[in-house]
Amino acid sequence: MNNPKISLVIVAHNEEKYIGKCIEFAIKHSRGRLHEILVVNNASTDTTKEIAQKYEMVRVVDESQKGQVRARQRSFYEIKGDLIAYIDADTQMPEKWLDVALDEFSQDKNLVCLSGPYVYYDFSKLQKFISKIYWHALAYPIYLAVGYMAVGGNFIIKKEVLDKMNGFDTSIEFYGEDTNIARRASKFGKVKFKLDFIMHSSARRLLHQGTLKIAFIYMLNFLSQVFMKKSATKAYKDVR
């Protein structure tokens, strides 16, 4: 792809503590190469929308029906870029994130979706070390075996492929939606999980609900999406 237009989408529900810094990192480290930044205000009752609207290059749209996947689907009808990047409101885009993505898509015309792991900025050093082992020793070998993997707050996908997929599966409440995206996108080309394509993220869900518990739930729903083509877990908790 030569000089693709890149749309960045941030889904946000009651993210007033995080959304400002998320946007600032994205603006700074994209260095003017984004076609648009779209914030989907997903039924927020705090000042998320007002904070996002303060940034000149940010466009805010509302999705009143609460749910991350529903908000992603709203973005599907709004975005105009050739490549669509999705990050979470509690992430902080690394300096070279966009460089890595553009390099990968320019080198491989068959690549349709690129994703990578999180590095949790609010973990302790020991927790960060254990997390790194998880991504390298468990997640990556599974990706190699299955052939696709995506992380919901750290992926970029071709708009033409998203169109062919008709966007996102709104029957999914939360868990397994990223694997669903990767599985369906893999029918149209290569879905790559790259270990050094990292996104800095908060570990708030893991810290709040327990790292082992959440790791088990994520793995359960990954396998369920791979083999059963549906998520195993419907219920989820907001962590704010």
General description of the model:
Helices cover 41% and strands 20% of the residues. With 240 residues, the protein is of the alpha/beta class. It has a single domain, classed as Spore Coat Polysaccharide Biosynthesis Protein SpsA, Chain A. It is globular.
How big is the Rg? Answer: 17 Å
Major β-sheet annotation: 7 strands, mixed
Spans where pLDDT lies below 50 across 5 or more residues: none
By DSSP, the count of extended strands is: 10
**Overall pLDDT confidence:** 97
Percent of residues in β-strands: 15-25%
Query: What is the number of independent domains?
Result: 1
Set down the secondary structure blueprint.
Blueprint: E1 6-12, H1 19-30, E2 36-42, H2 48-53, E3 58-63, H3 68-76, E4 83-88, E5 91-92, H4 97-107, E6 111-115, E7 118-120, H5 125-146, E8 154-158, H6 159-164, H7 177-185, E9 190-193, E10 199-201, H8 204-209, H9 211-227
Parallel strand pairs: 1-2, 1-4, 2-3, 6-9, 7-10
Antiparallel strand pairs: 4-8, 5-10, 6-8
Helix pairs in contact: 7-9
Q: What is the compact description of this entry?
A:
With about 240 residues, the protein is α/β, with parallel strands linked by helices.
Key words describing this protein structure:
240 residues; alpha/beta; Spore Coat Polysaccharide Biosynthesis Protein SpsA, Chain A; seven-stranded mixed β-sheet; three-stranded mixed β-sheet; 10 strands
